[in-house]
Structures
1.
Amino acid sequence: MVDLTIVARLVIEGEEPEVRKLVQQAVTEGVTPDKVLSEGLIAGMNVVGERMKKHEMFIPEVIRSAKAMNAAMDFLKPLLETEEVNLGPKLVLGTVKGDLHDIGKNLVGMMLKGAGFQVVDLGIGVPAERFVQAVVEQEATVLGMSALLTTTMPEMGNTIEALKAAGIREKVRVIIGGAPVSSEYANKIGADGYARDAARAVDKMRGLIQ
Amino acid sequence: MYGVVPLKGRVIEVLSRDEILQIHQAALEVLKDTGVKIQHEEALDIFKRAGAEVEQTKQIAHIPSQLVEFAINHAPRFITVCGRNPKYDLKSGTGAVHFTSGHGATFVIDFDTGERRPATKKDLENVVRLHDALEHTHLIYPEIYPQDVPTQALDRRISQALLCNTEKPVVATAYDGKAARDFLRMATAIAGGEEALRRRPMFTVSIGVISPLLFERDRVDVLLEICRSGHPFQVYNIPSAGGTSPATVAGTLVMTVAELLAGLVLTQLVRPGVPVRLMAYPSIIDQKYGCFTFACPEKVLMAGAMAQMFRYYGLPHAVHGATTRANVLDAQAGYETGIFDMFTALSGSEWIIEGTSSALEDTVLSVYEQAVIGNEICDMVYRILRGIEVNPETLAVDVIREIGPGGEFLTHPHTFEHFKLENWDAKLSNRMARDEWVESGAPDIGAKARDEVKRILATHHPKPLDADVQRKLQQIVEEAEG
């Protein structure tokens, strides 16, 4: 019988082939996919997130862990879907219009997937109307926006205004991040939260949807 | 890896080949014409028998260049000093740069109260234990001279504290011939016999030449005792430009070289082949404040020049690195120690004295936190010395092609494979963004170093000496205290 704590440890160590192998084996042995997900993969990524916050893990190591998790998810996801298991809260993510910076945003996406979120990544240079459209179509509960430039920051406020105009502002929690952004700025433009790094983004989103 | 060869052997040279030869010739001229004063009849006789012209009443020995040549030819090219733990053994002649603790503080900032007070034996023990834990302290000097123990056996007390609180190699100071014999007894007790001590020389004894050109009687006694035993020895000097040596940097270099070579000649006449390390501390008098200081750019220029002179002679050596005139842990303490460690390391000296020292106030005041900061400086210096790895894998043309314009390298396996070796890992220096730093209590470098000192002193305990060896050391100290 596969020990799911070993799966968690291998996620922390970023050992992609071993994680995949053990996850497949666990499912073959009859462990339910959602149990493998929560007690193996997410449990491992939770530790990664904590260590990242304390700077006990380096970013490339965190990424390796997230890659190991995502590879195992590719295998698990169809099984979870057929069993109609709750796939977790859905988040629409993107870098705002005029801004092409996506390294930090991608890291946020990886960590959120690792934490059990469904992430719909719209990519870079996303205009307000596309964010609104995606929130509606995906029935997302959270919208995450990123900006690196002080010149593109105002697009975050514009998107929030567009959500209001579409009448869906109350349906979605909005969280923002990026180098020039702060919690004060989040308050100013009427966002629900701000996180300064990917690990804290996970904490913040978990807090927001409770 | 212990120590790093600077930039794959490319070091900063402050002197041209011609200038090295000019300084060498000038030093030979000083040794022959002016000579050195030796307040020791037996040593004068040794010089006389070897062919030096001796002015008996003035106690001056005029040392001819043949004797200098003889000494340079007989002194070993390499020296090894051993720690109690063999993993800390230090070899010279590898081209690697090493850092040592500081030497001689008589005051401390009390770690608990913050008060400036005379240093105690407990402070010495704490600082030695701190250096035992610090990665980049490779050799430990008596960084503190305690003021709360009887002066007649201070040197034995210091050695006892060194030997009991570190497994790394140590350097002792002996005030007279009897102290030198006591040190050999201590080292023999720890090594487990004379033969064992010969195989693994536990510590170096060091004496200073008094500038200008004076060998004081008790110090010569120490030299004779230690060199006759064949134990590794160190001769150092501290000429100060404009005070005890010429105001010119070049003239002070001539003095530095002449004095150390005179010491070397005596060691090799006493016992040809005895391992000796020469240590140069030349510095200046600040003519505005009328004080001696190590914290000056001329000092590191001279350190770089002396490293070149020693390489020219092919002799084991040490020069002076980080020191600061700052009275508190401030930016001056940071820039002076940082610049001096960096420059002396780039000049390729084998051993850099004071590299990780806890001392401020030009070595007078020990502040524990400064040792931890010094260790961080040396850590950064070593990264610079390691230089740049250039090969097809690190040139990464394939990775650049794969990622292409507009992509990112953060998530590529090449980054995971290389970042740890390429990137310096800041252990103490701030890398937090402001809001996280504020949340963590907004610590400055002093506060962070303080936490690290606390951690080390609470958790780090070098292997104790066997109880009977400790008793033996205590007995030697008590005999000397009478």
Note: Strands of chain A lie at 90-95, 118-121, 142-146, 173-177, 193-194.
2.
Amino acid sequence: MTATGARTMHVEHCMGTVFSIDIRDAGDWTDAVGAVVRWLHHVDAVFSTYRPDSDISRMRRGELRLLDADPDVHRVLAHCADAQLTTGGRFTGMPGGRLDPTGLVKGWAVEQASGKLCGHGADNHAVNGGGDVQLAGEAAPGLPWAVGLVDPHDRSRVLRTVAGRNFAVASSGTVERGAHIIDPFTGGPAIGPAGVAVTGPSLTLADAYATAAFVMGADALTWIDSVPDYAALLIATDGTVRTSSRWPSG
Amino acid sequence: MRRVALAVVSTVAGLVVLLSFKTSSPAGTPPAAIGTPSAGNLGTSGPAETSAAPRAKRSSVRATSTTVTGTAANTQFGPVQVQLTVRNGKIIKVVAVEYPTGSPQDMEINSFAIPQLNQEALAAQNASISMVSGASYTSQGYLSSLQSALDKAGL
């Protein structure tokens, strides 16, 4: 199916942030959107570190064994292990020695949501989870999706635009949420650049790589050149923008 | 990834955003006025996606401004509804006509968020994008985010 120009929008508050669903195929997508909304709240119920009854919180307290946890916990931890290897340990699902897969859960949830929309036949859509975006198909017939990267120093300004079909963009930074990323090597908050964006096919990995790239700082650009299909953009604290060699609009 | 493609995306995204609004106080101007492209060439892939009407009337309504009101978006803080004034296909003004005022926290959020909306809707139009990525926003930050302006325009 190609994009038709029709548009179905849904905005859902979940996981302490906001998810925007934008479907560009004609049709009644009530069921598809409903499935995505239920999915997002399921992910929140299982993975939230703010909810004492989530699987992750219960595992942290030693009340729930991995064996007995929701199967999605196993899936996410497998992704965490994968990302930990690829990033040379700069990303981990155990920052500070404590179980916390938050660094890729949101990206993974959005990517899965996108997969559910495709499963319902909505081949052209975008899902944005708090600034991490997975895009399927195209925005309109013959037109690629365009994602604006917000300037971390002036959130009303778009710094760059990334356009394409079937790709993901994840960002990491400290402007709104403060120093919340732990450097696994020091155990303390990463200093990092003002902002990082990573693009590639999978938002699960892009999300993890954005977290890792933030921890790596300037080294992230040469590192990501060794990861097939992914590219990074760094915004220094002085506003200087640098991109890895495969960054699409560079 | 090509600049030409980006230019086309720009124009069409702008149109889609504008045409998604219902006209509430047209001041004598047909809703079609809001279809006027701000810049660039529509090309062959233009809004087959919208309706035929905007194209037909585009040239006759250049100087008049039109006010359109988006559907109220329900946020966890309450409904938020935005009104845009459009002239020659460009958003020239954004006003939040409905927003939460129930608690001191609401007032605090609004004093920051509502003025930002105007500026950000203009930025979104100029950048002509569908989605926004940046340092992760929180539920409260979303209210003043560029993505919020895009979502409201698309409703």
Note: Chain A touches chain B through 57 residues (CB under 8 Å).
